[in-house]
Amino acid sequence: MLKSKKVRLIVFSTIVVFMILWPIFEEFHYLYIYYPVIAVVFSLTFIRVFNEKRFEKRFYIKWEKRRKLGMWLFVPLSTMRTMAIIIFATLFGQLVGENRTPFYIITELPTERLTTMTIVVLIISLLASLAEWYENEKSYRNLTRLKRESLGL
Questions:
Q1: How confident is the model at residue 51 (pLDDT cuts 50, 70, 90)?
Q2: Residue 9: pLDDT above 70?
Q3: How far apart are CA 62 and CA 1, in angstroms?
Q4: What's the CA gap between 113 and 107, in Å, rounded?
Q5: How far apart are CA 46 and CA 87, in angstroms?
Protein backbone atom coordinates (compact mmCIF):
# COMPACT_ATOMS: atom_id res chain seq x y z
CA MET A 1 0.00 0.00 0.00
CA LEU A 2 1.14 3.51 -0.72
CA LYS A 3 2.29 5.03 2.56
CA SER A 4 3.01 8.65 1.72
CA LYS A 5 0.00 10.93 1.51
CA LYS A 6 1.68 12.85 -1.32
CA VAL A 7 2.10 9.69 -3.38
CA ARG A 8 -1.49 8.66 -2.66
CA LEU A 9 -2.73 12.09 -3.70
CA ILE A 10 -0.75 11.99 -6.96
CA VAL A 11 -1.98 8.48 -7.83
CA PHE A 12 -5.55 9.32 -6.86
CA SER A 13 -5.51 12.57 -8.88
CA THR A 14 -4.07 10.82 -11.92
CA ILE A 15 -6.81 8.19 -11.85
CA VAL A 16 -9.52 10.85 -11.41
CA VAL A 17 -8.22 12.87 -14.37
CA PHE A 18 -8.02 9.71 -16.49
CA MET A 19 -11.60 8.68 -15.63
CA ILE A 20 -12.91 12.18 -16.38
CA LEU A 21 -11.06 12.49 -19.71
CA TRP A 22 -11.56 8.90 -20.90
CA PRO A 23 -15.01 9.57 -22.45
CA ILE A 24 -13.46 12.29 -24.65
CA PHE A 25 -11.27 9.72 -26.42
CA GLU A 26 -13.70 6.79 -26.46
CA GLU A 27 -17.38 6.60 -27.33
CA PHE A 28 -19.38 6.40 -24.11
CA HIS A 29 -23.13 6.10 -23.73
CA TYR A 30 -25.23 7.37 -20.84
CA LEU A 31 -22.71 9.95 -19.64
CA TYR A 32 -25.41 11.36 -17.36
CA ILE A 33 -25.09 8.08 -15.43
CA TYR A 34 -21.32 7.64 -15.81
CA TYR A 35 -20.20 10.94 -14.29
CA PRO A 36 -22.42 10.81 -11.16
CA VAL A 37 -21.36 7.21 -10.45
CA ILE A 38 -17.69 8.15 -10.91
CA ALA A 39 -18.18 11.20 -8.65
CA VAL A 40 -19.72 9.07 -5.87
CA VAL A 41 -17.08 6.35 -6.15
CA PHE A 42 -14.18 8.81 -6.08
CA SER A 43 -15.71 10.81 -3.23
CA LEU A 44 -16.05 7.69 -1.11
CA THR A 45 -12.56 6.55 -2.07
CA PHE A 46 -11.08 9.94 -1.21
CA ILE A 47 -12.75 9.88 2.20
CA ARG A 48 -11.54 6.32 2.83
CA VAL A 49 -7.95 6.87 1.71
CA PHE A 50 -7.35 10.12 3.56
CA ASN A 51 -9.09 9.18 6.82
CA GLU A 52 -7.17 5.97 7.34
CA LYS A 53 -6.81 6.15 11.14
CA ARG A 54 -10.55 6.61 11.68
CA PHE A 55 -11.30 3.67 9.39
CA GLU A 56 -8.72 1.49 11.16
CA LYS A 57 -10.45 2.13 14.47
CA ARG A 58 -13.84 1.37 12.93
CA PHE A 59 -12.46 -1.78 11.27
CA TYR A 60 -11.04 -3.01 14.58
CA ILE A 61 -14.38 -2.65 16.37
CA LYS A 62 -16.43 -4.22 13.56
CA TRP A 63 -14.02 -7.05 12.85
CA GLU A 64 -13.88 -7.96 16.53
CA LYS A 65 -17.64 -8.69 16.32
CA ARG A 66 -17.64 -10.26 12.84
CA ARG A 67 -14.84 -12.70 13.51
CA LYS A 68 -16.85 -14.20 16.38
CA LEU A 69 -19.39 -15.40 13.79
CA GLY A 70 -16.66 -17.50 12.22
CA MET A 71 -15.21 -17.92 8.79
CA TRP A 72 -17.97 -20.28 7.62
CA LEU A 73 -20.63 -17.59 7.99
CA PHE A 74 -18.46 -14.69 6.84
CA VAL A 75 -17.25 -16.27 3.57
CA PRO A 76 -20.68 -17.04 2.02
CA LEU A 77 -22.01 -13.57 2.88
CA SER A 78 -18.86 -11.92 1.56
CA THR A 79 -19.01 -14.09 -1.58
CA MET A 80 -22.54 -12.90 -2.32
CA ARG A 81 -21.52 -9.28 -1.75
CA THR A 82 -18.46 -9.63 -3.98
CA MET A 83 -20.53 -11.32 -6.71
CA ALA A 84 -23.03 -8.45 -6.61
CA ILE A 85 -20.23 -5.90 -6.93
CA ILE A 86 -18.62 -7.73 -9.87
CA ILE A 87 -21.95 -8.15 -11.66
CA PHE A 88 -22.91 -4.52 -11.07
CA ALA A 89 -19.54 -3.25 -12.30
CA THR A 90 -19.73 -5.47 -15.39
CA LEU A 91 -23.29 -4.43 -16.21
CA PHE A 92 -22.44 -0.77 -15.63
CA GLY A 93 -19.40 -1.04 -17.91
CA GLN A 94 -21.44 -2.73 -20.61
CA LEU A 95 -24.19 -0.11 -20.36
CA VAL A 96 -21.87 2.89 -20.48
CA GLY A 97 -19.21 1.51 -22.81
CA GLU A 98 -21.14 -0.70 -25.20
CA ASN A 99 -24.75 0.55 -24.81
CA ARG A 100 -25.92 -2.93 -23.80
CA THR A 101 -28.66 -3.04 -21.20
CA PRO A 102 -28.78 -5.87 -18.65
CA PHE A 103 -31.93 -7.18 -20.34
CA TYR A 104 -30.15 -7.22 -23.70
CA ILE A 105 -27.18 -9.10 -22.25
CA ILE A 106 -29.37 -11.76 -20.65
CA THR A 107 -31.51 -12.29 -23.74
CA GLU A 108 -28.66 -12.27 -26.29
CA LEU A 109 -26.09 -14.44 -24.53
CA PRO A 110 -26.50 -18.20 -24.81
CA THR A 111 -27.49 -20.00 -21.61
CA GLU A 112 -24.21 -21.98 -21.55
CA ARG A 113 -22.19 -18.80 -21.66
CA LEU A 114 -24.24 -17.13 -18.90
CA THR A 115 -23.85 -20.26 -16.77
CA THR A 116 -20.09 -20.36 -17.38
CA MET A 117 -19.74 -16.66 -16.57
CA THR A 118 -21.78 -17.09 -13.38
CA ILE A 119 -19.59 -20.01 -12.25
CA VAL A 120 -16.41 -18.04 -12.99
CA VAL A 121 -17.72 -15.01 -11.06
CA LEU A 122 -18.71 -17.32 -8.17
CA ILE A 123 -15.22 -18.88 -8.03
CA ILE A 124 -13.50 -15.49 -8.20
CA SER A 125 -15.82 -14.15 -5.48
CA LEU A 126 -15.22 -17.17 -3.26
CA LEU A 127 -11.44 -16.84 -3.59
CA ALA A 128 -11.66 -13.09 -2.94
CA SER A 129 -13.79 -13.72 0.17
CA LEU A 130 -11.32 -16.25 1.54
CA ALA A 131 -8.47 -13.82 0.90
CA GLU A 132 -10.51 -11.06 2.56
CA TRP A 133 -10.97 -13.20 5.69
CA TYR A 134 -7.24 -13.89 6.01
CA GLU A 135 -6.28 -10.28 5.24
CA ASN A 136 -8.77 -8.99 7.80
CA GLU A 137 -7.41 -11.41 10.37
CA LYS A 138 -3.86 -10.25 9.62
CA SER A 139 -4.86 -6.58 9.93
CA TYR A 140 -6.74 -7.30 13.15
CA ARG A 141 -3.71 -9.06 14.67
CA ASN A 142 -1.44 -6.17 13.65
CA LEU A 143 -3.82 -3.60 15.15
CA THR A 144 -4.12 -5.71 18.31
CA ARG A 145 -0.32 -5.88 18.57
CA LEU A 146 -0.01 -2.11 18.05
CA LYS A 147 -2.71 -1.51 20.66
CA ARG A 148 -0.89 -3.71 23.17
CA GLU A 149 2.43 -1.99 22.46
CA SER A 150 0.88 1.45 22.95
CA LEU A 151 -0.46 0.31 26.32
CA GLY A 152 2.90 -1.16 27.27
CA LEU A 153 1.67 -4.77 27.59
A1: confident
A2: yes
A3: 22
A4: 12
A5: 24
